[in-house]
């Protein structure tokens, strides 16, 4: 009988996959892990290349051949491990067969999807079955959206009161040396194109997934202007177009429905250094969104990514130097009330305006392919070691819902490409 592995990294020969293999050397210490993908020769080459880079001999790492178009191979792969780390995207095209195979095999599944339609469709279709099979299916376990979702958990643990709302401000910059021509891999661009193209699907998915709306507690967190200067981060801000808010609100709904916790309102923004850069970014977001709505527009966006992204996107992705010089920080400012005499953070109204604030910062380097891969692997480690601290017996969950009571934040802080969670101001 073939020995069952703790973790298998599926899609290990892809761009995100190969960086996940590199981080696995340090994150999956003392665990049995393997790699999987369509092509054994490519997987052997990845193990050799990453082994050389890390100064380790990885040629004894088990290799499993599996293809998303071959259901039997997915089942065989899923049965070989306790947790499957899925790096094969875009997930709207390739994710569901892997999720289905994991649930049938009784294998936990984590991925780095930032695609709300995929994540919420999986919850709609498979949440009950995953619970029945005692399987955890957790998406958004990378830069989308561990900092924001676990940041909310970090805030609640340190607020010493009741949180009403949170504003999150994402900053990223490349330090030292000339900027590289490409900062993001094509796969991320492809996911964004199709995500925007089908954004209208979300309303229908959510109407089936959530039959009741979350209660609206006062005061309601108002949207900032489309473009504004924030004194919190000393920069020019736009609404953040990523999946952070949708993931966070899934977690807040879960905690409200399962634990009776007062849901926290949240808005997310992205920060730029100058008005000029922010206005250019706003124009790009509008152009990108409009073009992605049409079939012909999607074709040209996907065919000429460098042109339409002004050189930021390429099939080759960023260089090692570029990644290691890229820093990120997510500043989150919470507003609420001091701890009441007889209450926890339960569902209730407050008569007085909120006066207590807490500002936290989540930061790190190489967000796309360092912090993302470390976070993904850390979620697998936590499922293996602390499933008794996770809710229920399984389900299709967001990170905040799945890992709120675990030591995931501490695990993330252990690693070079992890994330640092710190209190910035407490008033």
TrEMBL record:
One of its GO terms (cellular component) is mitochondrion. Keywords: Membrane, Oxidoreductase, Transmembrane, Transmembrane helix. SUPFAM superfamilies: NAD(P)-binding Rossmann-fold domains. Residues 7-138 form the Saccharopine dehydrogenase NADP binding domain. Signal peptide: none annotated. The keyword Transmembrane helix applies. This is Putative saccharopine dehydrogenase. It comes from Glossina morsitans morsitans (Savannah tsetse fly).
